[in-house]
Amino acid sequence: MQSVPTFDEYMNPILKALHELGGSATNQEIFEKVSEDMGLTDELLSIPHNPERGNQTEVAYRMAWARTYLKQAGYIENSERGVWALTPQGRQTESVDPRRVVSLVRSQYVAKQSRSLSSAEQGESGEPPDLEDETSSDAWRSQLMSVLSRMMPDSFERLAQRLLRECGFVEVDVTGRTGDGGIDGRGILRVQNLVSFQVLFQCKRWAGTVGAKEIRDFRGAMVGRTDKGLFITTGSFSRDAQKEATRDGAPPIDLIDGEQLLDLLKNLELGVQRKVVEKIIIDEEWFQSI
């Protein structure tokens, strides 16, 4: 079986992906491009990082580490909307020495810790903080995914109903019926109050990967009822599932995986609240300049 690459092995593929994608890309676009370029198999992409803390895969976790190091080293940056982009330094860099990047970032962390006046904040190992601490996004993601995984199936369907309404759908109905070919509900999406079309949706509270078979089964249930489908899961979609969803000559199916679902809940503030925390920074140079 192919082994999962170490986090530093993703650095150059991430830089390459951003260059080829025009200098910026979402997490999902980077993930798909890097996975394809590195020839990562669906089996490897399905390996979970920590099933007890969420549905993030080991590959996604290590890619997040790689992005964090590249960001700290000044090659890439990210916005609050989850879009990563090359910095001026990154645009001039085709490849990096991963070992030098790791050494640079870790030395920056040690220097920062040594300047801290709070002994409670000083690390003893000289290692950067855990990813969940360094990028607070992953901390809330793990907690929220854990909450979703404990929801009852009917509660998760009602959550999807509320989500679609918040996104502009009207007449959203959760069928809640068995033997309906995987159809969990339907809704009408109106575009600028000019046109509207019916969308059938399916919700799967899965910890694993949704494959092409599930997409084909869902499309089969759509035949003769609508030309548009939406598949929502707390897990992820295999590459074959993504290809099947947009296959030529077949009704298209939009896919929302676990990471996108978390972002939607955060942006719409559905069960997610944002709090501003005061951070005190001591300017030692100011005191020394007096």
Automatic annotation (TrEMBL):
Residues 7-93 form the Restriction system protein Mrr-like N-terminal domain. Keywords: Endonuclease, Hydrolase, Nuclease. The keyword Cytoplasm does not apply. GO terms for biological process: DNA restriction-modification system. Residues 127-136 have a biased composition (Acidic residues). InterPro entries: Mrr-like_N_dom, Restrct_endonuc-II-like, Restrct_endonuc_IV_Mrr, tRNA_endonuc-like_dom_sf, Type_IV_Methyl-Rstrct_Enzyme. One of its GO terms (molecular function) is restriction endodeoxyribonuclease activity. Signal peptide: none annotated. PANTHER family: MRR RESTRICTION SYSTEM PROTEIN (PTHR30015), TYPE IV METHYL-DIRECTED RESTRICTION ENZYME ECOKMRR (PTHR30015:SF7). This is Restriction endonuclease.
